[in-house]
Structures are given as structure tokens and as C-alpha cells.
């Protein structure tokens, strides 16, 4: 990273090669964020996906919920179309207004404590099209978000994602970079993350 393009209290654009990354801090009124956190965690619908590593099946270290106008498949897991509930329509509108992109789906990740995390991946499924914009809203525990370039010997990028922040990934980022949410020791506090995506209807 070669210094940031612009940086003020509310918004920070990271100067990285082959992709765009912007962090909006204090994105929503804190009351709104707190209510959303409580209602989303307490609402049912949480599942724990199975992941296969070298032929062995494990439960993924986080809980998830998926809503979207189109069916979507990631890491070999199929999500049927399921309309967004009202509270997510409202959040989506706020995210769309801030970012200027439109989204039709959201994957919600619930990291119950520091033992939960997400491994290295790119959100580059063909249903997301070329250069997808992904807006990732975080409430709860502050966690490190890491990125590594797939082919160039660049320094990894680490960003601490605070409570009530929105990270926008766009441009060629998913094509050239992988990202992860590493596990951390001795963290008891939970974190919720909403990743808004636009899933395209593919004609096969
Ligand atoms: O929890 C995060 O901040 C990252 C989530 C993520 O990368 C994903 O859902 O694809
Ligand atoms: Fe991701």
C-alpha cells in the first residue's frame, strides 16, 4: 500500500493495485446498528455450512443466513432464492445510497467469538459477473480483514474493521486478490457482517 488516496473521519480509500477498497466508518446511527444487531442475531434462520477440505467434511466456523432475489452457489453450496425481509431492504437502500451500486442479495455471517472466522477466498463466482462490487457492513467486535494478491509479490493488506463500518470492494479486486477474516485468540465478543452482492441471472 502506498498511502491512502483520501482519508477523513468518515471515509478512507486504500491505495492498492488491481482493485478498489473504501472504508466508511460510523456508517449508520449507532441506535440503528445496535437494534439491527440484536434483531438479526435473535431472528431464526441461521445455518452452519459444511465445508470440504481434502475430502473431509467440517462445519464452517461461523453461522450464516442468505437472502437474495436469485439463487446463488458459492464454495459448492447452493442457496435458493429467498426475498429480503423489510429490515434488510432498508439496510440495502442505505448501502446502495452510500456506494452508488445496486445489490439484490445479502450473505450474513455471524462470528460468535474469535474462534469463528473465514478462510482465504475471492468472491469471484461467475454469477457475480466481471469486477463485482461487494459492500460489507460490520456490526460488533472489531476484527482484522486481510487481503493478499494472487500473483504479484505485494505486501498483504490488513485492515481493522470497526463496529458500524462499511467496506466497499470493487474494480478488479476479486479477480486479483483473496481476502480472509482470521481467527483471533481470547475474543469473546460476537460480530455480524452483511455482504451485499449483485447476483446475475445466467443463461446456461
Ligand atoms: O466477515 C467479513 O468481513 C468477510 C466476509 C466475506 O468475505 C464474505 O462473506 O465473502
Ligand atoms: Fe468474501
From TrEMBL:
Any matching Pfam family: 2OG-FeII_Oxy_2
Biological-process GO terms, alphabetical: DNA alkylation repair
UniProt cofactor(s): Fe(2+)
GO MF, any single term: hydrolase activity
Keyword list, A-Z: Dioxygenase, DNA damage, DNA repair, Iron, Magnesium, Metal-binding, Oxidoreductase
Native organism taxonomy: Bacteria, Pseudomonadati, Bacteroidota, Cytophagia, Cytophagales
Sequence ranges assigned to domain Fe2OG dioxygenase in this UniProt record: 102-200
PANTHER family: ALPHA-KETOGLUTARATE-DEPENDENT DIOXYGENASE ALKB HOMOLOG 3
Species annotation: Aureibacter tunicatorum
PROSITE patterns, per the entry: FE2OG_OXY (PS51471)
This protein's name: Alkylated DNA repair dioxygenase AlkB
Amino acid at each position: 500500500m502506498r498511502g491512502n488516496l483520501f482519508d477523513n473521519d468518515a471515509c478512507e480509500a486504500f491505495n492498492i493495485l488491481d482493485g478498489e477498497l473504501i472504508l466508511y466508518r460510523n456508517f449508520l446511527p449507532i441506535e440503528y446498528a445496535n437494534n439491527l444487531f440484536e434483531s438479526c442475531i435473535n431472528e431464526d434462520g441461521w445455518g452452519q455450512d459444511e465445508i470440504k477440505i481434502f475430502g473431509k467434511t467440517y462445519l464452517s466456523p461461523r453461522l450464516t443466513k442468505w437472502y437474495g432475489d436469485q439463487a446463488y452457489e458459492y464454495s459448492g453450496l447452493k442457496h435458493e432464492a429467498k426475498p429480503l425481509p423489510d429490515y434488510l431492504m432498508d439496510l440495502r437502500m442505505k448501502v446502495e445510497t452510500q456506494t452508488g451500486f445496486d445489490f439484490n442479495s445479502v450473505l450474513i455471517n455471524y462470528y460468535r467469538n474469535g474462534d469463528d472466522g473465514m478462510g482465504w477466498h475471492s468472491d469471484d463466482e461467475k454469477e457475480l459477473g466481471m469486477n463485482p462490487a461487494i459492500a460489507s457492513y460490520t456490526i460488533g467486535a472489531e476484527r482484522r480483514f486481510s487481503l493478499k494478491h494472487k500473483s504479484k509479490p505485494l505486501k498483504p493488506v490488513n485492515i481493522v474493521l470497526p463496529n458500524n463500518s462499511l467496506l466497499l470492494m470493487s474494480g478488479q479486486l476479486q479477480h486479483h486478490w483473496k481476502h480472509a477474516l482470521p481467527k483471533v485468540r481470547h475474543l469473546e465478543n460476537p460480530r455480524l457482517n452483511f455482504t451485499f452482492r449483485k447476483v446475475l441471472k445466467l443463461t446456461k
